[in-house]
Write a structure and sequence with these properties.
This protein has about 110 residues and is α/β, with parallel strands linked by helices. The protein has one domain. Helix content is about 40%, strand content about 15%. It has 4 helices and 4 strands, in the order βααβαββα. It has a 4-stranded parallel beta sheet with strand order 2-1-3-4, sandwiched between helices. The protein is globular.
Length: about 110
């Protein structure tokens, strides 16, 4: 997965516990992307922080850039996540990175 161009755009991601269990290598890759010098990505670790950041981002019309990364086996609804939050699986997340990297634009919702 290539992320160099994509990390220059503001993004907040909460990784589900199940995703972390099933895909530790991808979880580490995401953490590494967040530590790049020009990275504007951040991993959110608590549900409370996610809901606060997600609500604020939606008010600022950046809701599409705050998401929960879930495993393929999990549903679209993650317990405790604010209603209307973006919940994506690995392939959807990769597509969003490729979209940003190719077009140098970001998705909005």
């Amino acid at each position: 997965m290539k992320y160099n161009g994509a990390v220059r755009f503001w993004r907040r991601v909460m990784v589900s516990e199940r995703f972390r269990e099933l895909r530790p290598a991808l979880t580490e890759l995401l953490a590494a992307a967040c530590t790049q010098p020009d990275s504007k990505w951040k991993i959110i670790v608590s549900m409370e922080e996610f809901n606060r950041v997600c609500t604020k981002a939606r008010r600022e019309r950046k809701g599409g850039q705050v998401m929960v990364l879930r495993s393929d086996g999990e549903g679209q609804q993650i317990n405790g996540v604010v209603q209307g939050a973006k919940v994506v699986g690995p392939s959807q997340f990769e597509l969003s990175i490729c979209k940003v990297d190719k077009a140098h634009t970001v998705s909005r919702s």
